[in-house]
Every structure is written in structure tokens, then in C-alpha cells.
Amino acid sequence: MADRYCIRPDGDHPLTWALAESDGWVVLDPSQFEGLSLPGARQLRGYETVRDGVRLRILTANNRFRGWNAGITYFNLCWVSAEPFDRQELDEEIRSQLAIPGFRQEGARVYAWVPLPNGGRRIVGSREFQRRFHAIAREDGMRMLLSNDRQGMVAATYMKATEDCEGWCY
Questions:
Q1: Nearest one of 108, 101, 104 to 79, comparing CA atoms
Q2: Where are the domains of the chain?
Q3: Using CA atoms in the order 133, 159, 10, 51, what is the torsion angle rounded to 10 degrees?
Q4: Cis before residue 84, ω within 30 degrees of 0?
């Protein structure tokens, strides 16, 4: 799911929305976002469907991250979540699709890479990620996919830095 709705659209939220709508997902009312722990999220939009007893959601939003001595980096974000689901199964799916290793970061598994002109990927490891997160995201176009779980819900979060934050920069 992360591949279809988040990775392939590569931060293009209107494309994610069009895919979800063409696949029959139902648009969520903003009141259905109450209680979500997404501090700073702007322009939040969501979709939902149920398949085989599993509640699936797609959320898109814009956000910013401030780094010490690194300024502000703006991101287009896309989440896909499943409840109930097995996080180990999600991580296996991600490793298989991306063919890159992940690393642990504050309760999540992070898969980070820089797309190459030849279609390949340069893997961003934990140390480089920790030291240069903002610079790699802004200057090199780093992409990230994070997996985590919380109270039976498993989620994959795709992040791509953007300079185009007109209308939502703060």
C-alpha cells in the first residue's frame, strides 16, 4: 500500500488523492482526525476503506521540522495505516520493495535513501541521517519511509522535502 499511495506519487498529494478515489476509498471528514497525534500537520486530508476486516487509512499533510543550527525543512507527508496489522509483515514488505536496510530511530524503523539519476538509490545510513538530516533532505532530495505501530495500528510514513510550501508555511 505504501508503494502505490505514497512512494510512487512521491509527495504529489493530488495524485495520491486521485488514486485513492479511483480505488473506491472514502474521504474522511476532518472530525474523524480528532485525537490523531500529528503536531504541526497542515492541509490534512484522509481516506479510509475496510478490507477483510482490516481498517485501512491514507492521510496526507504538510509539515515542517526545525533543526538545531539547520533551519526549517518543509515536507510533504503521506501515511498509510492498517488496523489490525502486523508490523513485522509491514517491515518485510518495505525491505522487499525498497531493497534497502532500515535502522531504528525512536520507536520507528527508518528507510532513507537519495534517488539517483539512473533510477537507483543511495542508501542513507543511521549515522549520516543523524548528522545531516536537514541538509540531505533539502540539498540531495532524500526520501524516507518510517514504519511504526501503536495500540494495534501499524503505519508507514513517507516523507519528501519540499520548497513549495506556499499557502501553508508557518
A1: 108
A2: 2-162
A3: 150
A4: yes
Residues 6+ apart with CB under 8 A from 3: 97
pLDDT tens digit sequence for 136-147? 999 999 999 999
Spell out the residues 6+ positions from residue 112 whose beta carbon is closer than 8 angstroms to its own: 123, 124, 125, 129, 136, 142, 143, 144, 145
User: Distance between CA atoms of 123 and 136, rounded to whole angstroms?
Assistant: 11
64-117 pLDDT per residue, tens: 888 777 788 999 999 999 998 989 999 999 999 999 999 999 889 999 999 999
Is the Cβ–Cβ distance between 71 and 139 less than 8 Å?
no
Residue labelled with grid coordinates 479511483: 22
Q: How far is CA 48 from the centre of its chain?
A: 16
HSE at residue 6, side-chain half, CA atoms within 13 A, is 29
**Global confidence as pTM:** 0.90
